[in-house]
Amino acid sequence: MTLSPAIWQPVLDRHASLFEALEDGRSLALLDKDTWDAGQGEALHCKLEGGHMQARASAWEGAAKTDADMLFVGLRDSLDHLEQASPDARMGALKDRIHQGDVLFFVMRTKCTLIDAGWEDFLDSLGLAFMGACR
After folding, report:
1. What is the pTM of this model?
2. Each residue of 42-99: pLDDT tens digit?
3. Do 53 and 47 form a contact (C-beta atoms < 8 A)?
4. Residue 1: is its pLDDT beyond 80?
5. Per DSSP, which regions of 12-67 are E strands?
6. Which one, of 54, 29, 25, 53, lies nearest residue 42 by Cα?
7. What is the CA radius of gyration of the chain?
8. Sheet of 27-32: strands edge to edge?
9. CB neighbours (10 Å) of residue 26?
10. pLDDT, position 26
11. Is 87 helix (H, G, I), strand (E, B) or coil?
12. Distance (Å, rounded) from C-alpha 54 to C-alpha 63?
């Protein structure tokens, strides 16, 4: 299993509107459970640079060393199934996998920080909306 930037970049491009409100430099990461457990390996790091979300493979050195705002950790073969989905269906498949418990979602920043940074539309699209005001 690999998390290929070439497979995920078209998904980010198709859903660019979800990242329009996002501050430059904000990021998320996807990785598998084995990499999470080992605390080392490779993750797919998606970062907003120059107003465009970029997918890149990056070294994973554990949650304490990540700069990602949120993490998506695939259990079993869930990330393989996501990569087999068409680019048009992959974001919906990610949402389904999260709600089925096959992809774990970790928030690495406070609710207020995420909303202020512009993540609200993205989180809403995955059915992970934060309720209530934080200001």
Report:
1. 0.92
2. 999 999 999 999 999 999 999 999 999 999 999 999 999 999 999 999 999 999 999 9
3. yes
4. no
5. 27-32, 41-49, 52-60
6. 29
7. 14
8. 52-60, 41-49, 27-32, 70-74, 103-107
9. 23
10. 98
11. helix
12. 20
Q: Per the structure block, which two tokens stand in for 3? A: 């998390």
Locate 121 and state its tokens.
């539309």
| Per-residue pLDDT reduced to its tens digit, 112-125 | 999 999 999 999 99
Q: Which amino acid, residue 86?
A: S
User: Which segments of 1-135 does DSSP mark as H helices, in order?
Assistant: 5-14, 33-38, 78-84, 87-100, 111-117, 120-125
- Phi/psi region, residue 5 (left: phi>0; alpha: psi -120 to 50; beta: rest), is alpha
The amino acid at 55: A
